[in-house]
Design goal:
Elements: E1 6-9, E2 14-17, E3 25-28, H1 31-51
Antiparallel strand pairs: 1-2, 2-3
């Protein structure tokens, strides 16, 4: 499955979260490291849901850019 991940620049690096996976978040000093940590966080999150017998959420969130005049 393919989940949308939002990356945000912070004062100390980057943060990331997946809107379709509540509670699945991470932070890192660089964008590249944050991307890798988020991949690991999603895998860990999904493994935990499976172990607990909970359903895996379908990805439903999408993103787009809007050009402002």
């Amino acid at each position: 499955m393919k989940y949308l991940v939002i990356y945000e620049k912070t004062a100390t690096g980057y943060s990331a979260y997946a809107p379709d996976l509540p509670g699945c978040v991470t932070t890192g000093p660089t964008l590249r490291e944050t991307e890798q940590l988020m991949k690991e966080a999603i895998a860990f999150h999904l493994d935990g849901l499976r172990e607990d017998g909970l359903p895996i959420p379908e990805p439903t969130t999408r993103a787009d850019y809007v050009t402002a005049a």
